[in-house]
Amino acid sequence: MTDQPSSLAQNQMPAPGVPTIRNVNWGGLKTLYVKEVRRFFKVQLQTIWAPAMSQLLLMVVFTTALGGRGSVSVGGASIAFAAFIAPGLIVMGMLNNAFANSSFSLLVGKIQGTIVDYLMPPLSTAELLAALVGGAVTRAFCVGFAVWLAMLLFLGSAAIPANPLVAILFGLLGSALLAFLGVLTSIWGEKFDHAAAVTNFVIAPLTLLSGTFYSVDRLAPAFQAVSHANPFFYIISGFRYGFLEVSDGYLPVWGGALIVLALDIVLGVLCYALLKSGWKLKN
Fold this sequence. Notes:
elongated, transmembrane, transport, cell membrane, ABC_2_transport, Transport permease protein
């Protein structure tokens, strides 16, 4: 009588070395993704609504001080200054928060000694990366929606996108790009100062010098070339096209989308390779 349950249990157990999860571990992937989302939702006043207020204040300051009653010429069309900078402020908030979310997860685990919580569960490298990036992109869209609501209150119908699918596409591509960059930073960084350095010396300059507050068509040819070397320019220009159906620059909007997509693929492969190797994570 006592041998029957044990033998039955042995028959149900897989042979040593045979994986019980043969394809995608959807349960583990969902669990880690929900953990990442719940982490920033628990402090949503700081992670979602505070960025919306900051972007709204930037809108008020710039429209008041630099042309509240003026207009900007983009692609031969005259656009009200407030309507011109609103899409840039929305996507800028999305980019900053996508980076902040993904650069925090692994880094805080390394600092607090809880990195094993990410490395030990039965998740593949691709599943781990997908959950981290998915959480960051989710936060970016939550922030983008909050900022858009603030802009809608400020601008009214001028803040309604003319082509929402294009805006969503560039928001997704841009958020994924910054999420991958955040994962790279959390792998490389060893303290919060390292993440802050990337934010202050890489993310902030690329964001502010990407045409958020001005049209690059008004720049000298040399500075236009520098702007076109900035990948953030294509994200902001494409996102603005989704609202206004006008964009500046040499390439059509779909050309910019292909450039950002290519960068996403490159950074995604690099993140995957570093996570799989365990560089600065397992030693």
